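Sequence, please.
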């Protein structure tokens, strides 16, 4: 129901699961993505650390975020290009 109300093409919605040693967030994101038909980007970055056994510390969060953005870049770029083409003059 939520995705039906989001004014974005489903192919441009990216789900992820931020690493958490207590929960299989990546697995949950993959399962949800498969059910609802969205992209899932969950890069595997080794050597991450947490501040409380749940939330990544700042250096780990920065490394994981960088890996996420690099992996998501092709999808983001394609969606931005499609939006530019759809709104360009003469269309």
């Amino acid at each position: 129901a939520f995705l039906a109300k989001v004014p974005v093409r489903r192919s441009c919605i990216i789900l992820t699961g931020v690493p958490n040693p207590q929960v299989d967030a990546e697995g949950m994101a993959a399962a949800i993505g498969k059910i609802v038909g969205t992209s899932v980007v969950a890069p595997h970055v080794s050597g991450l650390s947490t501040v409380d056994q749940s939330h990544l510390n700042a250096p780990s969060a920065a490394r994981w975020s960088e890996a996420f953005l690099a992996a998501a870049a092709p999808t983001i770029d394609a969606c931005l290009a499609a939006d530019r083409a759809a709104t360009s003059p003469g269309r």
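Residues 58-87 form the longest helix (30 residues).
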